[in-house]
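Async update (no meeting this week)

Hi team, since we skipped the sync, here's where things stand on the single-chain job. The sequence we agreed to prioritize is pasted below, unchanged from the tracker. I ran it this morning and attached the output directly underneath so nobody has to dig for it. Comments welcome in thread, and please keep replies under the output.
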Amino acid sequence: MSKQTAIGTVEAALPETAAAVPGQENEILEAQYKKACDKAHVYAQSCILADYFTKQQLAAELGRTVRTLDRWLLRGDGPPKTPHGRDVLFRKEAVREWMRSREQKRPQRRIH
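Output:
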């Protein structure tokens, strides 16, 4: 995992509401940042999990929020998932197949 990808993964893992707690912003953000960094590091180091996206990585890859992915999964509209403990992983090839299945053919224009 490149440094830029790891940074994006960590930033995507941080909740938007963390800064809303007055007086505790730094402590909360530092703890969440460390937790996200540790998780990103574990996934980056694993050869077995190299073919999988975390929820944060997939959200960043698709340009969507983690909340949107959660909504898709609840509705059954999202890509196939793989439960991994408390986490959810997405096989990269399955995500590509899911994207292909969502392709829309351009309607042909009728010429009269």
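Quick observations from my side:
The first helix runs from residue 3 to 13.
The chain has a mean pLDDT of 77.
Reply here if anything looks off.
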